[in-house]
Amino acid sequence: MSDDAAPPESLMPYDSWAEEALREVAIRALEHAAAHGLPGEHHFYLTFRTDHPGTTVPGHLKARYPQEITIVLQHQFEDLLIDRAAQRFAVTLFFGGVPSRLVVPFGALTMFHDPQVRFGLRFPVTGADLPAFVDDAADEEAPAPEPEAPPVPAAPAQVVSLDAFRRKT
User: Fold this and answer.
1) What CA–CA distance (Å, rounded) separates 76 from 49?
2) Which helix (H) or strand (E) holds 22?
3) Contact 113/151 with Cβ under 8 angstroms?
4) Which residue has the higher pLDDT, 160 or 21?
């Protein structure tokens, strides 16, 4: 038997089960932060697709980040709500002192990172081929402030990627 032989095609959806389990880790971390706040120096970088169906971002952010944005949940966030039934979370962030409400489906998340413990996950995007809803009303009176740039982590993150386990087509 040769080690070069391709593995047999699985009739079990291991890839999707593993992705769901890893996404569950990020969701549980968000739920913990919503219920108890962020302990110690923990904070989250969340990258998500702004063009994903069901994603709601103010118009000025959508214009600046038409496809993807990274937000930081650390000091200036409020009303973090996790809605498992709707498969999304919502949070109010402050960009230049102006509050902005973001609604993000779990499927829009592409990255979760907690630099305090060098823990990170990357996710494939699901259903990103449809346009997202943009809340233009939230942008009418607010000027377009500069978003706060996330600091660069001191050490490289240990990111878990499922790409190495995917079948090559």
Assistant:
1) 21
2) helix 14-36
3) no
4) 21
